[in-house]
Specification:
A hairpin with a 2-residue loop joins strand 1 (8-13) and strand 2 (16-21). The protein contains ten helices and ten strands. By secondary structure, it is an alpha/beta fold. The structure holds coenzyme A. Coenzyme A binds at residues 26-27, 29, 66-71, 109, 111-112, 135-136, 255, 258.
């Protein structure tokens, strides 16, 4: 597979494609380059008959991903914010619609867009040091890459509101209790455990797996599409709010002072 990526790495072993988020120094924050690279990698994987399962992992111990790259959010207007939202939604919908099973191996923080990426996967296995949440509300924002729709589908409306409206993060064991992750394992066993699940999946008929996945995905699909549109509209609108800009700039300028 191509090694021309700047923000991700790919490896392919025994029919399993590993997509490694590779901006550890920025806690694997998802910038526009990473979004595009993820999109390209997913296109390639979709076409590759040799690949029968996909695993998302991260480089570094501290984070699966701390979400959208906040330095890119500072200059957004309502118009460019809508584009930003749609772009992320499209890439994550590509994960959800991928004809092969997709697993997220979550180590450390999975916040905001990082959690949204994991929510688009079919399975989520977390290490015992994982911390998950949607902190957007603390920035005067709402999630923009699918969480307002996928989170209630995974954990129920009440748990989704808890996470989205408080911005609180939860630890792996709490995430397991509400069904946000399927399993929690010790950090040093995460990759082996995820690989074990992938190996089980690649033994099944790829066509049957594809039909099974897409049939389950089709539940409430039209409601989901309307919901994504609403999410983009709300996210974009918040970029005309002075308070949103002030909160994002405060985060970024604090970092620049370090
Ligand atoms: N966007 C851009 N950069 C980010 C980032 C993000 N979402 N999250 C972390 N980083 C960067 C930091 O700016 C820092 O970079 P620097 O060393 O060049 O200053 C580096 O990653 C390490 O993060 P830092 O904040 O120093 O680590 P920490 O252990 O003190 O805190 C978090 C970890 C996850 C609690 C904190 O980074 C955080 O709150 N991040 C933002 C999470 C968020 O709001 N995500 C939703 C975005 S919509």
């Amino acid at each position: 597979m191509s090694s021309s990526y700047k923000t991700i790495k790919l490896k392919n072993k025994q029919h399993i494609a590993w997509i490694i988020l590779d901006r550890a120094d920025k806690l694997n924050a998802i910038n526009s380059v990473m979004l595009q690279e993820l999109s390209n990698a997913l296109d390639m994987i979709e076409k590759d008959e040799n690949t029968r399962c996909v695993i998302f992992v991260s480089n570094g111990e501290k984070a699966f991903s701390a979400g959208a790259d906040l330095t890119e959010l500072c200059s957004l207007t309502p118009e460019t914010a809508a584009q930003f939202s749609i772009k992320g939604q499209q890439v994550f919908t590509k994960i959800e619609a991928c004809s092969k099973p997709v697993i997220a191996a979550i180590k450390g923080y999975a916040l905001g867009g990082g959690l949204e990426l994991a929510l688009a996967c079919d399975f989520r296995i977390a290490s015992d040091n994982a911390e998950l949440g949607c902190p957007e509300i603390k920035l005067g924002l709402v999630p923009a890459w699918g969480a307002t729709q996928r989170l209630p589908a995974v954990v129920g409306v009440s748990n989704a509101k808890q996470l989205i409206m408080t911005g609180d993060t939860i630890q792996a064991n709490e995430a397991l209790k509400i069904g946000l992750v399927d399993k929690v394992v010790p950090s040093n066993e995460l990759e082996a455990d995820v690989e074990g699940l992938a190996q089980k999946l690649v033994k099944h008929s790829p066509v049957a797996l594809k039909y099974a996945k897409l049939a389950v995905n089709s539940v409430a699909q039209s409601l989901f599409d309307c919901g994504l549109k609403k999410e983009t509209e709300d996210f974009a609108l918040l970029f005309s709010e002075k308070e949103t800009k002030e909160r994002i700039e405060a985060f970024v300028s604090q970092r620049n002072k370090k």
